[in-house]
Amino acid sequence: MSVDSNHGDARPPRAGLRDRIPDAILPAVPPTQRTPEPPVPAMDLPVTAVPGIGPERAVLLQRLGIATVGDLLLHRPRRHEDRRAFLPIRGVKLGEPALACGRIIAAGTNRFRGGSRSVYEFILDDGTARLHCRWWNLPFIEKFFAVGDEVMVFGKPNSLRPPTIDHPETEKVEAGDEAPLHLNRVVPVHPATEGLSARAIRAMVSRALERFGAEIPEPTPRLVPVGAAPDGWPSRAEAIRALHFPAEIADAERARGRLALDEFAALSLEIRRRRRNLERQAKAMPCGGDNHLIRPFLASLGFRLTDAQARVLREIRADLAGAVPMRRLLQGDVGSGKTVVAACAALMTVEGGWNVAVMAPTEILAGQWAANLLRWFGPLGIAIELRTGSKRETSGTDATGPRVTVGTHALVQRAATFDRLGLVVIDEQHKFGVAQREALVRKGWYPHLLVMTATPIPRTLALSVYGDLDVSVVDAPPAGRGRIRTHVRGTKALAKVWEFVRRELEAGRQAYVVYARVDESEHDETKAVTREFGRVSTAMAPHAVGLLHGQLHAREKDAAMDAFRSGATKVLVATTVIEVGVDVPNATVMVIENAERFGLAQLHQLRGRVGRGAHESHCILVADEKTEASKERLKIMAETNDGFELAEADLRLRGAGELLGKAQSGLPSLKFGDLQGDRALLELARGWVAGMKM
Ligand code: ADP
Ligand code: MG
């Protein structure tokens, strides 16, 4: 028998792309045309159709998310090993991955601490030198090996005196049956699971290829050109074979590329179908308006729309007046002035006699929206309704005319209903899941949709996650803004930081101080807002300091925000509840303590709370004991104010899932495609899909 030490390395099962396509767009087969029981395509057969896989192994394979022949064939190797040439043990280098092969000449287990701890060790000899392989506290491992066994090991030496690898991956060389599969060639190492070694999976994949390799179909429609490089790609069947058993390790990458293309094509196709369905099924409500409200609104605003805002507004108006419901993403860096654009879209809708719903991620932001709209729309006789978890109130003059309803996710609760819903606006949309967005849209009959975000979306994500939305960008901030300087400081400099803040307060400005936590914790050195509030108050006296965090009651939150907005408090000590949307132009300093605890997107959003007025602003990132990753983040923050650059850096540093946030369940499940590295492939697939007749 053989073992792999990479037990439990299973990836969680993922839903296939097809599962994500709404039923409505799968081709429906009329009952009369049904043929008697068409044969099941080979790829959909249960894995037990593969010779040598019985019900027991099928159960183990389930743990790896493998149910069908197709799943097994698409079980992506973690890596490949070139077993045509092993590294002589004499030549292994410290910290460099080594693949060696030799015979066990000695083995044994040492127990210590009364037997509660142990180390098993064997010594491998390949004729050039000896390699010590050790496993700590895995005493059962000893039963897998015996002196005299021939074993392949893979790992990074952690010592050279003598050469030693702790917890290497291993595979025994077996005499006989499938040895040609496991030796003298490039072999795949698949994710394995307890009871099912990489070696066993390799054999199963090989048998599946033997039996069903000729029945691997090209996807329909056929979009990927098959043929010789540079323009042609391997067929899907060739690609799957080479994914597992490439002639050279490099060939596996081109095979992966082909499979990634299939995923991107399926994704682009899904997006295009969704779009087409919208165009066919939905008749847009006429919400272009007639200017009778917009005109007085713009006249009363106190500033002129920027060119960028006016251009975006024209794009939105064309949609609102068009035949197909608007599906538009409004992008614009923090402070670029998206709110007023959305307010204009709401007015156009109201002009036509339709109602509007605005959803924002926090009560604070929903409250700010309601206050703004009341100030702007109240004089025009439009009712503004605020609905959050804790509140439901309507203000404004005419309760029977069109209304704008503002709220948090309370808006999508089952009981919430909307009449004559013409437009849905979702602010800070990256804070919501796609499901919440859809739930609000479904409250009406194909209303127009405007989603807003300040998180600039790198192109690959825009194409894949938001591919069904048109994009408008407010690409320049209003003129006359002071610039924002960013500084990184250690906690030793805090006294100086407070001194600096005081000077700003004395000049009439205001400041935010942000902490990562609400409460103290024994396990965590991170400063907590409730305790630091006292210290900051002392440091700032006699200037008034306010406190704001998520655990306060809605009324207390409102009071704290109102006091800061009106200037009654000069400093607002807060958690990240103020991260998005909050707009107080007189605030010019943002101090962020434990800045190492925040991600780039979050830091950029927080920094966006200042620099909203004419005065020069400052963002001070306070951090000690920085890890490499957090140092890198803070350095990037200090270097650039450009949200797009930051987002690209974030994608590089953290990956797509993190960037979009946990709530953003819209991320496609890709097994082979990589949203960071495969932009060219994604664009290629999109091009093919766009050129298709549908
Ligand atoms: P964001 O895009 O981050 O949501 P806001 O809509 O909150 O930004 O706008 C930021 C600030 O800029 C607000 O105080 C807003 O009133 C102001 N503002 C918006 N448009 C203009 C403009 N054209 N000229 C001057 N100030 C503007
Ligand atoms: Mg905003």
Regions with pLDDT < 50 over 5+ consecutive residues?
1-29
State the end-to-end distance: 54 Å
Number of domains: 4
Largest sheet: 8 strands, mixed
Number of strands: 23
> What would CATH call the homologous superfamily of the largest domain?
P-loop containing nucleotide triphosphate hydrolases
Cα radius of gyration in angstroms: 31 Å
- Helix-and-strand structural type: alpha/beta
Bound molecules: adenosine-5'-diphosphate, magnesium ion
Number of DSSP helical runs? 20
Break the fold down into its secondary structure elements and pairings.
Blueprint: H1 55-62, H2 69-73, E1 79-82, E2 98-112, E3 117-125, E4 130-136, E5 150-155, E6 159-160, E7 163-166, E8 169-172, H3 179-182, E9 186-189, H4 198-212, H5 236-244, H6 249-281, H7 294-300, H8 307-320, E10 327-332, H9 338-351, E11 355-359, H10 363-377, E12 383-387, E13 392-395, E14 403-407, E15 421-426, H11 434-441, E16 448-453, H12 459-464, E17 470-474, E18 484-489, H13 494-506, E19 510-514, H14 529-540, E20 545-548, H15 554-566, E21 571-574, E22 587-592, H16 600-607, E23 617-622, H17 628-639, H18 643-654, H19 656-660, H20 679-690
Parallel strand pairs: 4-7, 10-16, 10-17, 11-14, 11-15, 12-14, 15-16, 18-23, 19-21, 19-22, 20-21, 22-23
Antiparallel strand pairs: 1-9, 2-3, 2-5, 3-4, 5-8, 6-7, 12-13
Helix pairs in contact: 5-6, 6-20, 8-9, 17-18
The structure holds adenosine-5'-diphosphate and magnesium ion.
